Amino acid sequence: MARPRYVSVGLSPLVAVILLIAITVAAAVVVSGVFFNLAGIAGRRPTAIIDQVRLVATPAGAGTWAVVLKNTGDVPITGVAVSWPTGATCNPTFPAFSPLPANPGSTTSATASAATGCNLGTTYRIIITVTFQGGSTQILTTQATAVIA
Predict the structure, then answer these.
(1) Which residue of 11, 66, 118, 138 has the fewest C-beta atoms within 10 A of its own C-beta?
(2) CA–CA separation, 144 vs 91, rounded Å?
(3) Residue 78: Cβ within 10 Å count
C-alpha cells in the first residue's frame, strides 16, 4: 500500500522565524524612534556656566570687570543682567553682552569699568541672571578678587 503524500500549505518553520524576527526589529525601531524624539523634546536644558570673571584694579581704586559666559545647554541665551549685593562698592553698569543670542556651545561676554571703589586684594561678589529663549532664567553667583594688571 502506498503512503499518502501530504502537501504543506503553511509557512516553513524557518521562514516563520525569519518573519517574526523582522517584524520584531521593525517594531523596535519605530518605538525607539518615537521615544528618543519625545525624550529630546522633553530634555531641553537651558544651562549656562561662568567661563571667566576677572577684576583688574588700579591702586587708585578704578576697576575693570570682564565676564564670559558659556552656553552649556541646548537653548539659546537671549539676555544677561549683572547685579551686585547690597552695599557693594565696585559695581559698574554692564553694557549688553555680545553676541546675543548665544547659541548652545558658544560664549557671550561683556566688560565694564568702575571709576572708584575697587580696592586691590578685596574680593567682590557678582550676581548674573541669564535669560534663555522661552523665558526661563538661571541665576549664577561668583566672586572675583581685585588684582593689578
Answers:
(1) 11
(2) 12
(3) 14
| Residue extents of the structural domains in the chain | 12-43, 48-145
Q: What is the length of the chain?
A: 149
CB neighbour list of residue 42: distance below 8 Å, 6 or more residues apart: none
- Quote the cell numbers at residue 128: 548674573
Q: Give the end-to-end CA distance of the chain in Å, rounded to a whole number.
A: 111
Q: What's the confidence (pLDDT) of residue 38? A: 65
pLDDT at 17: 86
pLDDT tens column, 112-129: 999 999 999 999 999 999
Query: For the segment 51-105, what is each residue's pLDDT rounded down to a tens digit?
Result: 999 999 999 999 999 999 999 999 999 999 999 998 889 999 999 999 999 999 9
- In the 3-class helix/strand/coil scheme, how is 63-78 assigned residue by residue? EEEEEEEEECCCCCEE
The residue whose grid cell reads 529630546 is: 40
Q: For residue 112, how far is the Cα from the chain centroid?
A: 25
48-145 has which CATH code?
Answer: 2.60.40.1230
Using an 8 Å Cβ cutoff, are 50 and 110 in contact?
Answer: no
